[in-house]
């Protein structure tokens, strides 16, 4: 009897070991060292389709070591390490162990990564995105100071964006099923995607990644999201084809109407605001570096001409609704937000390619001008008032 009990105990112990091994085999590990961050807290976050969720954190000691373990998903998933306001993005597509070494001062840019080719590719993509952002920010400052002409500014901005897309396309078209391809497709500048969903060439990039994710990861929420975006892109692009209107009865409309929620949640319609008024329609992003200066300029114009019949209908494309509400709460004009953010149908209908975008409606509701140079904005408004 004692012998049987011993055998059962051994078998039970072996079973526990095997179960422990199985549970561990389904986990991934992100670990490493951050120098110069003694006493700081590093956070491990999941980057979802529409939200970022903090999963874990660790207070760093003098040796700077950290380690996070989580259950792996059967499809690529995205995470980031956050130290103060700096981020390192990582993609996990198996039960790998990713090792990172970084310095607190250059946490987001000068780190090294081992154990994941996807994470190495994401670093390359991130650096290209940061380069483009820095270049475009520099161009905006020069343009604001009137150091470069309009045409030069537009050309240089497009060149900077294209430089990023050249790097991104390398990963998108060489391995469209990869985590790096997905990551490259959804990088942004000032809240807008580098890859335009409604551009024929860029649409192919969405289609390539969407098709691959449908095939390789049909259970991933990102596959469904990509699939819907690709279909939306195709629908809009087909709608842009030349149409014969000779035999179609038409009803004249003066402008494309918009109806979006205000900071209180009430719906505001552009056509209601525009009755008998000159209206400045502004697509913007409150989180952009240039936003405060733009709003100060609009504030001066609004103060000078509101009593004469000027209204402003400002549309936020910010993804962070809380940030928008705080920023817009003290503005005197009509502030609304499109929850579709970078996928805004309203922005697409107005053919908004970059932010800020400014349009003027006259007192009859006719869209009379798209303002490219804010320096001419007040004069254009005065003429209509």
UniProtKB/TrEMBL annotation:
**What is the species of this protein?**
Parabacteroides chartae
List, in alphabetical order, the GO biological process terms annotated in this UniProt record. cytochrome complex assembly
> Which cell locations does it reside in?
Cell envelope
Gene Ontology terms: cellular component: cell envelope
Q: Which Pfam families match?
A: AhpC-TSA, DUF4369
Q: Does the keyword Nucleotide-binding apply?
A: no
Q: From the record, what ranges are coiled-coil?
A: none
Q: Where is the signal peptide?
A: 1-25
Keywords, A to Z, come to: Cytochrome c-type biogenesis, Disulfide bond, Redox-active center, Signal
Boundaries of each Thioredoxin domain copy?
A: 249-385
- Name the record gives this protein: Peroxiredoxin
**Per the record's keyword annotation, is Signal included, yes or no?**
yes
């Amino acid at each position: 009897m004692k012998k049987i009990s011993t055998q059962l105990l051994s078998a039970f112990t072996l079973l526990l070991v095997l179960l422990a091994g199985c549970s561990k085999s389904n986990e991934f590990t992100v670990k490493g060292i951050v120098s110069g961050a003694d006493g700081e807290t590093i956070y491990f976050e999941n980057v979802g389709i529409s939200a970022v969720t903090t999963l874990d954190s660790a207070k760093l000691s003098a040796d700077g070591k950290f380690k996070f373990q989580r259950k792996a998903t059967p499809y690529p998933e995205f995470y980031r390490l956050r130290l103060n306001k700096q981020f390192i993005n990582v993609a996990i597509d198996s039960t790998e162990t990713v090792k990172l070494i970084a310095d607190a001062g250059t946490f987001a840019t000068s780190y090294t990564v081992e154990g994941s080719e996807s994470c190495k590719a994401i670093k390359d993509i991130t650096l290209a995105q940061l380069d483009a952002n820095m270049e475009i920010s520099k161009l905006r400052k020069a343009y604001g100071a009137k150091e470069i002409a309009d045409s030069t500014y537009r050309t240089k901005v497009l060149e900077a964006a294209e430089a990023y897309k050249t790097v991104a396309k390398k990963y998108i078209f060489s391995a469209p099923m990869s985590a790096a391809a997905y990551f490259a497709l959804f990088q942004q500048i000032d809240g807008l995607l580098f890859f335009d969903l409604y551009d024929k060439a860029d649409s192919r990039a969405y289609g390539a990644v969407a098709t691959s994710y449908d095939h390789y990861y049909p259970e991933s929420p990102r596959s469904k999201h990509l699939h819907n975006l690709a279909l939306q892109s195709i629908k809009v692009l087909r709608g842009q084809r030349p149409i014969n209107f000779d035999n179609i009865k038409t009803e004249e409309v003066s402008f494309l109407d918009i109806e979006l929620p205000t900071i209180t949640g009430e719906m505001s319609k552009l056509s209601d605001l525009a009755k008998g008024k000159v209206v400045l329609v502004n697509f913007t992003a409150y989180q952009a570096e240039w936003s405060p200066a733009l709003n100060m300029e609009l504030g001066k114009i609004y103060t000078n001409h509101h009593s004469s019949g000027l209204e402003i209908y400002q549309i936020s494309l910010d993804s962070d609704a809380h940030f928008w509400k705080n920023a817009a709460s003290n503005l005197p004009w009509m502030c609304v937000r499109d929850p579709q953010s970078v996928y805004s149908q309203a922005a697409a209908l107005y053919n908004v390619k970059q932010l800020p975008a400014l349009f003027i409606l006259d007192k009859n509701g006719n869209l009379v001008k798209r303002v490219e140079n804010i320096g001419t904005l007040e004069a254009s408004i005065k003429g209509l008032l």
